[in-house]
Amino acid sequence: xxxxPLLALRDVVQxxxxxxxxxxxxxxxxxxxxxxxxxxxGAGKSTLLKILCGAMAPDAGTITLAGRDVVFRAPADALxxxxxxxxxxxxxxxxxxxxxxxxxxxxxxRRPLPLLDARARDRAAEDALALLGETLxxxxxxxxxxxxxxxxVEIARxxxxxxxxxxxxxxxxxxxxxxxxxxxxTLRKLAAEGAGILYVSHxxxxxxxxxxxxxxxxxxxVALTAPASSLDRAAxxxxxxxxxxxxxxxxxxxxxxxxxxxxxxGGPGVAKVDLVLHRGEVLGLAGLVGAGRTALARLIFGxxxxxxxxxxxxxxxxxxxxxxxxxxxxxxxLTEDRDVLGLIPQMNVRENAxxxxxxxxxxxxxxxxxxxxxxxxxxxxxxxxxxxxxxxxVAQLSGGNRQKVVLARWLLTRSRVLLLDEPTVGVxxxxxxxxxxLARELAxxxxxxxxxxxxxxxxxSVSDRIVVMRRGRIAGELPAAGATRERIMTLATA
Amino acid sequence: MRKPAEIxxxxxxxxxxxxxxxxxxxxxxxxNLRNVTLQASIxxxxxxxxxxxxxxxGIDLSVGSVVAMAGIVATSCLKLGIGLPLSILAALAFGALxxxxxxxxVARLSLAPFIVTLAFMTIWRGAAFLxxxxxxxxxLPPGFALLGGGRxxxxxxxxxxxxxxxxxxxxxxxxxxxGRHVVACGGNPEAARLAGIRTGHVLAxxxxxxxxLAALSGVLLASRMNSGQPNAGLMYELDAIAAAxxxxxxxxxxxxxIVGTLLGALLIAVLRNGLNLLDVxxxxxxVLVGAVILAAVLFDPQRRSx
Lengths: 494, 306
Hints:
The complex is a heterodimer. Chain A has 17 helices and 24 strands. By secondary structure, chain A is of the alpha/beta class. In chain A, the strands form 6 sheets. Chain A has a 6-stranded mixed sheet with strand order 6-9-10-3-11-12, sandwiched between helices. In chain A, strand 4 and strand 5 form a beta hairpin. Chain A starts with 6 loop residues before the first strand and ends with a helix. Chain B contains 14 helices and 2 strands. In chain B, strands 1-2 form a two-stranded antiparallel sheet. The longest helix of chain B has 27 residues. Classes of the chains: A alpha/beta, B mainly alpha. The interface between A and B is medium-sized, with 34 and 24 residues.
């Protein structure tokens, strides 16, 4: 890259508490360049994009746009400077028309009065769509459009403001191949007109197809920046996973009888899955965000309706119509986001722990508080839960201990199958190891444990067997002994 | 963890009583105290049901109109000659049915509680005038008036009803599975569902509870007036909400206490009563009651921690 970079990030640092999401990242974007940004989940891509579009201010580092230092305090600053982002989850106002959405935030008015100018609005919208070579019904509500069209509206919105830098976060996640091809043509046209494009994707085939250069992020640092032509997919994967990791098969627990069986199961976000979980086994479920791992857990747990397939637990057919029925059948689900989906923030530790299994301590409708407290105490000790008291609000606990409260909930319901979705996100290192040990211990007592994680080290160290999902299907299975980060990532991204 | 708020309210109530006891000679007499609790009882009973509804993050604006309709149902049944117990039962059944319909619309169709109960508020108020032609139902059999006007061991029946309902409500909220589930549904409905709680049932049930208690209030009020009045209970829903909010119940759901609501209702009732004794005009009273509501919310110790 000989020309002066359009956009340059230098030594960008962003911390969340003690964790550095970005640890001194530098990145150049040349005019007319399509630059792919790849990395594992949690490598820092989203954080970088947030900083770039002004949604977040970095703790340290500089951003230079066309040679001048800039500071974005809000997305409006970034937009004014010509930096637009198309987020993964589109941000249209569904009830507003296509034209209204395109000019949103920069609505043309009839000066000197502050009245909206509909004709100027439609002209601006048409012009922006024309740059994409598209025509849409300007009056149609944006929410009624198919997803790919909605994305066009987002891109048109960016273009209506004379975009210099366009960042796209996983733009093809919900597009068909044809729509993807169309998007790529649009991006090439934009680049040809001198815009710089930052393209974030998990899909390495796409990256190879569209990118001029590739930057790989790993653990908040740049692992590699190189012209796409000099890289093959294996080299990118190697840079993504970094250091060789020993395949540390846990001391082989003898696999017990089958406890959970899924045949041909499908539903929202899951295409078709066959899966078997055994007593005493910790089964790791790997895959990229959106591959259908959480969706599968929700189907098993009855939180979502299955559209096909059959399931069995301990030999009996399992067809839960609600979480309630799944819990009764012996399933516990440690949800991905314990604060949003797991805990009742106004309740204390004891109340949160017994939320699902309260019946066991009741005489008719009345809770026998002493029994309840005793049972919670037993499990709290067993899980080494650290709390000021069992009557303390859960908000006072650390992430790892909040996780243990939810875990206690499922032990109190005597769950035989535990679904643990990202059990150590936001948990400090010590508690993380404890939770891993607990997962193994709970399996050792005859339960079946399914661990969903985006952290490959976690899966490699805790699982007996790793199943990789991709686009709603099982992409492959690896015994822990033979699994490596590379093999998992290859299955997940192929 | 909700103790500080309740103690604060209790202190405020004691201070308020002390001020009035000094300022108004008639305040601290057995007659007047009986009177205060009697005056408080009707809307306090409403506020007990309202607390459960608000705990789930909802609101029930229909209670004032249910008070009127329930009074009319009870008095009309009496005039038909089906006897007092059945008449009361009919009124309570009406309240439960009204709450059940509202609850079903809220829980099943996910309609906004504000809108659904606003509709029922208007419907029942209109119906009350419609079925009575705008005239009170009166000339009732003797004995009906004893319900609202009678005493047991020197305590007015409505006051006893209020105390009984708050005692039961407190136990239900703090010591039963149902109470736990109500709080969970208000605190984090999706987490509650994923914990196996039948959130739809719980949600619908609080409206049934609120409607039934509103009907009971309606019967007591009709008995005190010895007639069924179509304009009875006008704006009572706002008094009930005020009592719950002053008592520390959060309008976003998940936090609140029945004891707090009782204290809130008494705080407002004592304020009205004391100001009456001091001959303060009702206009000024309104302003002061509003100020108390604001002050209670501002000084709520839980507000800052969230």
